[in-house]
Amino acid sequence: MPTSAGGPRVLLRQLREVMAEPESTQIRLDKITVLIAANMVAEVCSVYLLRAGHQLELFSTEGLNPDSVHKASLGVGEGLVGKIAADAKPLNTSDAQSHPSFAYLPETGEEDYQSFLGVPVLRGGYAIGVLVVQNRVARHYSDEEVEALQTTAMVLAEMVGSDAMLVASEDIDDDIAHIKSHHIRGVALAGGIALGHVVLHEPRVVVTNIIAEDIAHEHERLDKGTGELRDSIDRMLSRLDPSRGGEHREVLEAYRMFAHDRGWLSKMHEAVTTGLTAEAAVERVQNDNRARLMRQKDPYIRERLHDFDDLANRLLRILSGRAATAAAEEIPEDAVIVARNMGPAELLDYDRDRVRGLILEDGSPTSHVTIVARALDIPLVGSGERVVDLVDPDDPIIADGDSGEVYIRPSSDVEEAYSDKVRFRARRQAQYAALRGSPAVTTDGHRIRLSVNAGLLVDLPHLEEAGADGIGLFRTELQFMIASAFPRMREQTSLYRSVLEAAGDKPVVFRSLDIGSDKVLPYLKHVKEENPAMGWRAIRMSLDRPALFRLQMRALLRAAGGKPMRVMFPMVAEVDEFRRARALVDHECAFLRKHGHTLPSEIHLGVMFEVPSLMWQLDELLTLVDFVSVGSNDLQQFFYASDRGHPRLAGRYDALSTPMLRFLRDIASAANKAGVPVNLCGEMAGRPIDAMALIGVGFRSISMTPAAIGPVKEMIMALSVESITETVELLLRESHHTIRPQLVDFAQKHNISF
Ligand code: PEP
Ligand code: MG
């Protein structure tokens, strides 16, 4: 097998000389392709660069037909070159023409070459071009050659990215892209509207110094930099404000673990050994990681890899002497943060009072940053394709967390329409705030209990702000989901204690771990299931692996320290599951008593009604439980056999359909008859029209997202229980796909806002 002539270090030195020449980009590119071809003993070396419109144009070649330069081009995803750009990873084959992705470009004359090695020219994890070498004979390029070509591609990325000549020769589309308005349709991840100015989360660190002058010195710098990175994480951990939440600590601890990862460090040192500076080595390894990350299907692995990516950025900033992130700098009062992705700790780093919204290129409903954004009430749009590339700092921008729309540099009419919306919402918020101290009582004197759903420490201030009656659902799994390892008992107890303290005299209902289904713990071995929502989850897992459940129960019982404690179990499908769960709690009580711990003054154990089978066990169940809470999100999905997360099924069946409401009515009436408190804590409780229907079928206690308390309370204060009950009863006599329009009618007639 032929070997490189001179190896990567020699090539890098030669490239540096070419780059220092006062020549045009084209001439330098042409010299570079010649050098690479010679160094790698290749007959062909070509550079393709991405032009506006997603075309990869042949910019320079040594070996292919020179007339095809600036003429031959391939779309991203088209041919081998397009595939490399689309996958952002190298492609190495000894028989190019048999490759399934091969596309023939007759003008280049490349049919003579069998072997093909191409690597992406990456900037910020995205391919902006492709660098290719080809040989006539069939040969497989070695790993060292792939590495060397990747390193060379970095030099090219820098040259192309910073060269004014090239920009001038580009289609002007790209320049215009940064002036004109853009509309992006993303995914709504956290509700609300943000109107403000762009803050780029990670002010780009442009690595300009790629080729090392003194390799030993670069190794030293890398070691010093990683040492500083570790110290800075330790400092952040020690400075952590306890009121900022345990979740912040857990994320930082994961960072600390990654910062000590030997594999990561040794890869960077290897890159330095090939002739790169410390910064370039970090970027090189980060590019690889990022390309890998983008190909991962499993969102949980992506999430962890993102943490790695973030860590590399921190290191890059240390090495280049730049400030940490935008969070550490003064940001405008109407900041809309724009990022490819972000960890939850990074969002918590920002001054909440200045952040109006968040837009991510990535992001998913279950990602940790989404959970935290919702808890902080920050509108969030995810899947905002190319948003980072399309914005400049300080650009006016609108993020609509209700619809998923993003408007970059919006036109004045869009801006006005949104300003109206925001003003309207602000007025409404002020009205809701005025209701904070008043109880939710209907016009005919019925008191309705309104509680909030929570799951993180950052949620707790909402309880007071919203003027809620308590926490109707505390989702304990969120602490587990954002941690890097199982939270220890001490950590669990401390969170539960803080929750109880924040709630004061108001009741808190803790739900035992509801993991499985979409709530996967990254550190727990994840068994692939055909139907995870109906799989080994929630109480099933707790009963089969009682150690985890018992530990949690012990933490809860200890946290109560003499106060009342309320716990409910998710996804109970038969009475016996409740009995077994209760027996485990009894066992923990006996253990704590034996060891002299203070037990809660009262223990209330309940079930979540999420599985329809409970309907036909209700009589017996109601003699055993202290309360019932209907989890209408899951109940509806099982009632209608309709996946709650499936975008095509969203809205197909309505919770306000006759069968669903009859079902809910029967649960409420059985519980009311038995004198067992019943609550409903699914999303529907937070929608005024739905909440009105729930009151109509007999619910007097509902629990919802904190932002919904105001609108729901306002609706209740204008509602007569008698007339809504009568109206709903009448409507339920006939079959309806939904009674929503009739209820909207009712609300309008009775001057009820919704
Ligand atoms: C529900 O299923 O309605 C519920 C409240 O629980 P979760 O949304 O956490 O599954
Ligand atoms: Mg549920």
Helix proportion of residues, in percent? 40-55%
**Straight-line N-to-C gap:** 74 Å
Per CATH, what is the topology of the largest domain? Answer: TIM Barrel
How is the biggest beta sheet arranged? 8 strands, mixed
Q: Number of DSSP helices? A: 28
Give a concise summary.
The protein has 754 residues and is α/β, with parallel strands linked by helices. The protein has 4 domains: 6-167, 2-Layer Sandwich (Beta-Lactamase), CATH 3.30.450; 182-203 and 326-424, Glucose Oxidase, domain 1 (3-Layer(bba) Sandwich), CATH 3.50.30.10; 215-320, PtsI, HPr-binding domain (Enzyme I, Chain A, domain 2, Orthogonal Bundle), CATH 1.10.274.10; 438-749, Phosphoenolpyruvate-binding domains (TIM Barrel, Alpha-Beta Barrel), CATH 3.20.20.
Helices and strands in order:
Layout lengths: L6 H14 L4 H15 L4 E8 L3 E8 L10 E3 L3 H9 L3 E3 L21 E9 L2 E10 L7 H20 L1 H6 L3 H5 L4 E4 L1 E4 L2 E8 L14 H25 L6 H14 L2 H12 L4 H18 L3 H21 L15 E5 L4 H6 L5 E6 L7 H9 L3 E3 L4 H4 L5 E5 L4 E4 L3 H23 L14 E6 L6 H6 L4 E5 L1 H5 L7 H15 L4 E4 L26 H7 L1 H15 L4 E5 L5 H20 L8 E7 L8 H7 L2 E4 L1 H8 L18 H17 L3 E3 L7 H9 L4 E4 L4 H9 L3 H11 L8 H10 L5
Parallel strand pairs: 9-10, 10-11, 11-12, 15-16, 15-22, 16-17, 17-18, 18-19, 19-20, 20-21
Antiparallel strand pairs: 1-2, 1-6, 2-3, 4-5, 5-6, 7-14, 8-12, 9-13, 13-14
The chain binds phosphoenolpyruvate and magnesium ion.
